[in-house]
Structures are given as structure tokens and as C-alpha cells.
């Protein structure tokens, strides 16, 4: 039981750091790590702890707040009249946030799959040159707009298979599809 709790906590921490990276890069990861250790801190304290400029720390904190991953309490100093913002991580909604992010990714991947399977693409074969739809290729008289080479039909089978694979994985993670069951192996000697 103890190790299961530790495993869940580690996974939750990893997911939090991945979200922080998506939101604000490596600096956001550093801010989140510092805030985890400190439990509660001002933006100035976090800037001092991480070595990141205070304006950048504030931008990261507000971005984390916008995503529901950080919150603050505002306290007024009675002597100076200044307000101090004490920040803390808010991880109660982390599973919901991760699920919403995965749902958005699933939607995007399905749109990409629809586009990949509903169009025929043409390409000159030169790395970095654009793939063109049939209509776009017609406009350029089936010549690459960058190099002038003849455009050939592009085989996007690998792209389609990768998209299908990732969609299946996400649907399984989200509980929207069952994992494919492995077929039972036949025993040697049986018919």
C-alpha cells in the first residue's frame, strides 16, 4: 500500500512538472520545484531561490494560476500598506487539467487524421519543402513552388498509422476505448 501511494505521488509530480514545462518551459519547472519545497512563497522569494528574474517568476505564476495549478493569498502589510502575494501550488484539480489537456490533444489528432485521410498530398521529395494538396499542386502545375521539381504523390501511410496509434493510446488512457486483448496462444499439440 505504501509503495502504491509513493508511485501515485511520483506520477502526479511528473505530470505536474510536464504541465509546468508546457506552460512556461524549464523556468516554470524550476519555479514549481521551488514552490513544492517551500509550500508557500512570494514571487520575490521564489526569484531568489531559483535565480530567475522576478518579472519572469510573476509571469510563470500567473500562467500557472490561469491553468489552475497555482493560487495565492493577498495579505496587506499594515505598516507599509503594500500587498504581498503568497503563492502555493494547487494540485487538487491536476487530474481534471490533465484529462482536459489529453482530450484537447485527442481532438487535435483526430482532426489531423481526418485531414491526412481526406486529402491526397504531393511533394517534390526534398526535405523541408512543403507537401501540397491536390488543388495546391494543380495551381503550381505539379511543380514544387520552392525548387521547381516535379511533384509526386506523397505516401502518408506512416503519418496516418502514427496518428491512429497515438489516438488509440489516448483513448485507452482516457477510458474511451478498451485495450486490445491479446489473442490466446494455442497450446502445442492441440488442433
Note down, in words, how this protein is organized.
By secondary structure, the chain is mainly α. It folds into two domains: 2-92, Winged helix-like DNA-binding domain superfamily/Winged helix DNA-binding domain (Arc Repressor Mutant, subunit A), CATH 1.10.10; 95-173, no CATH class. The protein contains six helices and five strands; from the N terminus they run H-H-H-E-E-H-E-E-H-E-H. It has helices spanning 2-38, 43-50, 54-66, 94-118, 134-139, 157-173, and strands at 70-76, 83-89, 121-123, 132-133, 152-153. It has a three-stranded antiparallel beta sheet. Strands 1-2 form a two-stranded antiparallel sheet. The longest helix has 37 residues, at 2-38. It starts with a helix and ends in an 18-residue tail after the last helix. The model has no long low-confidence stretch (mean pLDDT 86).
Rg for CA atoms? 25 Å
How many strand units? Answer: 5
Q: Major sheet: order of its strands? A: 4-3-5
- Helix amount: 55-70%
**Which term fits the overall shape?**
elongated
What is the terminal separation in angstroms? 44 Å
CATH homologous superfamily designation of the largest domain:
Winged helix-like DNA-binding domain superfamily/Winged helix DNA-binding domain
Amino acid at each position: 500500500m505504501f509503495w502504491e501511494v509513493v508511485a501515485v505521488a511520483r506520477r502526479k509530480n511528473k505530470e505536474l512538472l510536464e504541465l509546468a514545462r508546457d506552460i512556461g518551459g524549464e523556468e516554470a519547472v524550476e519555479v514549481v520545484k521551488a514552490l513544492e519545497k517551500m509550500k508557500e512563497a512570494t514571487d520575490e522569494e521564489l526569484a531568489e531561490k531559483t535565480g530567475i528574474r522576478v518579472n519572469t517568476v510573476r509571469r510563470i505564476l500567473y500562467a500557472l494560476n490561469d491553468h489552475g495549478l497555482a493560487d495565492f493569498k493577498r495579505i496587506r502589510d499594515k505598516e507599509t500598506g503594500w500587498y504581498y502575494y503568497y503563492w502555493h501550488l494547487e494540485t487538487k484539480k491536476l487530474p481534471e487539467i490533465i484529462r482536459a489537456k489529453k482530450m484537447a490533444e485527442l481532438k487535435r489528432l483526430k482532426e489531423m487524421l481526418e485531414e491526412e485521410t481526406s486529402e491526397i498530398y504531393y511533394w517534390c521529395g526534398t526535405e523541408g519543402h512543403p507537401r501540397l494538396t491536390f488543388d495546391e499542386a494543380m495551381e503550381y502545375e505539379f511543380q514544387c513552388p520552392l525548387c521547381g521539381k516535379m511533384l509526386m504523390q506523397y505516401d502518408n501511410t506512416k503519418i496516418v498509422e502514427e496518428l491512429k496509434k497515438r489516438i488509440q493510446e489516448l483513448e485507452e488512457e482516457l477510458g474511451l476505448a478498451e485495450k486490445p486483448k491479446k489473442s490466446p496462444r494455442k497450446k502445442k499439440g492441440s488442433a
